[in-house]
Amino acid sequence: MKRILLILILITCTRSFSQDVAFTQSFMIPESINPSFSGFYQTTKAGLLYKNQQWSGFNFNLNSQFIYFDDWYPNLNSGIGISLINHQETVTNYNLKQVNLSWAYDVQIDYDWHFRPSISVGFGFKDYGFDNLLFEDQIDIYQNLISSNTFDPIVLSENVRYFDFGASFLFNNDYSWVGLTLRHLNRPNVSMVSQGDAPLDIFVSLHASLELPILNYNDDNSIFLITNFMMQGKYDRFDLGFQYVFDRFSVGLTAATNPIQTSEKSHFITSVNPVIGMAWE
Q1: InterPro entries recorded for this chain (predicted)?
Q2: What is the rounded average pLDDT of the residues 48-70?
Q3: Considering the domain boundaries, does residue 83 fall inside one?
Q4: pTM: predicted TM-score of the whole model, two decimal places
Q5: Is 198 domain-assigned?
């Protein structure tokens, strides 16, 4: 049985959503954006995405990891996958971990095209790590002391756990694909305050990889137009770029844009990102 392992390490200066982590180079490991890719290659597949997001001059960075494993089950005509997203912020000590289980079913429309609907179920854990914060009830102005203990209700519920549901679909042939992903369909409550109500906004992603009829010297060389439009709450982002694939290697260049700018200080182009990848089989 053929097995595929993909590892992609990213060091970028792009922004991520305030709620969902957005990997600029998700087209390299499309399982990170669409669970319908579970079992897509009808073989065992595993991969890792790592992103270190830094700001020059500031002691602040974000670390994000996406790990996945999926396999194809011919008796079910389905692919099943499991993934883990891990995200940390250095200043706030915010930490997110979420495990997702995905199931994708393959429907052959005609000789060339397939339709792959999928559903996913996840369990998430958010922790803000309030240990480094100072609260009002810790300060004793009469004795000039700071207590190590606090009874602030937000600290007593400094983490939140939730179940998450999503759905996606994918149209594909041997050369191109177009997909749609919907996350947080149940809008889980992620409030850190007791009896609080902070439903997570639904995440929408419309994405495609389309092979272009240029520089096709043989079956191992292709150029793709790649797009990914993402929206969650008031935030949006549109990634556009090109990818050149030759044998097991690929190089790409994408631009992350902010098409629906939410403030006068917003920039239309937020980053330009080169990427190099390799697949082991």
Answers
A1: PorP/SprF_Bacteroidetes
A2: 75
A3: yes
A4: 0.79
A5: yes
Model pLDDT for residues 164-179, shown as the tens digit of each residue: 999 999 999 988 999 9
Select from 119, 90, 104, 122 the least CA-distant residue to 20: 122
Q: Which two tokens stand for residue 173?
A: 């042939």
3-state SS class at 244:
strand
Q: How confident is the model at residue 49 (pLDDT cuts 50, 70, 90)?
A: confident
DSSP for 134-149, please give it: --GGGEETTTTEE-S-
Q: Tell me the chain's radius of gyration from C-alpha atoms.
A: 21
Nearest to 177 by CA among 280, 26, 70: 26
| Angle at alpha carbon of residue 91, lines to 89 and 96, rounded to 5° | 25
Encoding tokens for residue 84? 């883990």
Mean pLDDT of 257-275: 75
- Separation between Cα atoms, residue 27 and residue 36, nearest integer Å: 13
Domain contains 140: yes
**d(Cα 54, Cα 221) in Å, to the nearest integer?**
34
Query: 261: pLDDT confidence band, cut at 50, 70 and 90?
Result: low
Alpha carbon separation from 93 to 86, 90, 126, 192, 276 (Å, rounded): 13, 5, 11, 14, 31
For residue 109, tell me if it sits in a domain: yes
Query: Quick check: 78 and 40 in contact, CB under 8 A?
Result: no
Q: Looking at residue 18, what is its pLDDT?
A: 45
Domain housing 208: 3-213
pLDDT above 70 (res 68): yes
Mean local confidence (pLDDT), 120-140 = 73
Inter-residue contact 24 to 12 (CB < 8 Å): yes
Domain count, the chain: 1
